[in-house]
Amino acid sequence: MEIVDARGQVCPRPIIMTKNVFDELEEGTVKTQVDDMYCVENLQKYANGQGFEFSYVETDYGFETTIVKEKGAEKKVEETNGNLVLAFSSDKMGDGDEKLGKSLIKSYIYSVAEADEVPSTLLFFNYGIHLTTEGSEVIDDLKRIEEKGAKIMTCGACLDFYDRKEKLLIGEVTNMYVIYDTLSKADGNVIIR
């Protein structure tokens, strides 16, 4: 049995910490310690999606989940898009609080980097170019995504507008025609604003 202490971690970290342990196990039990019910619910969704057994108990420090992977557990397979494109038009996610939005985008990109399969392409334009340039807090995660085979492309006109062309740290410079062409040929695309 493995124990993961994810107390004090915000989602998706408890899930990813647990997933990383299971990636090394053919079968076994992982107990994950978390602070709140939200993390418990997310761990349950993860376990259900993998075909693992799940239970939890309330403890003095919060909650302890127990996830059991039996040999030959059947992962619930969902059809994946072979050519998924993510497009980022901002350096934050959503229109609410700026601090929350920046935290969400950081967590989202981290989640993509931790995924077994990554999108084929990540596009960055308008204020989203700040995610691929000097000062970005997500460069390491973007590098991991790129290493897994994703193309990372940043709008050249946007880099020029914000005077950031010399500060590009990852990927390649592109243009609106290529951005249009990439989005139009995608099996699916998601625009993050």
TrEMBL record:
InterPro entries: DsrEFH-like (IPR027396), Se_metab_YedF (IPR019870), TusA-like (IPR001455), TusA-like_sf (IPR036868). One of its GO terms (molecular function) is transferase activity. SUPFAM superfamilies: DsrEFH-like, SirA-like. Pfam families: TusA. Keywords: Transferase. Residues 4-28 form the UPF0033 domain. This is Sulfurtransferase-like selenium metabolism protein YedF. The gene is yedF.
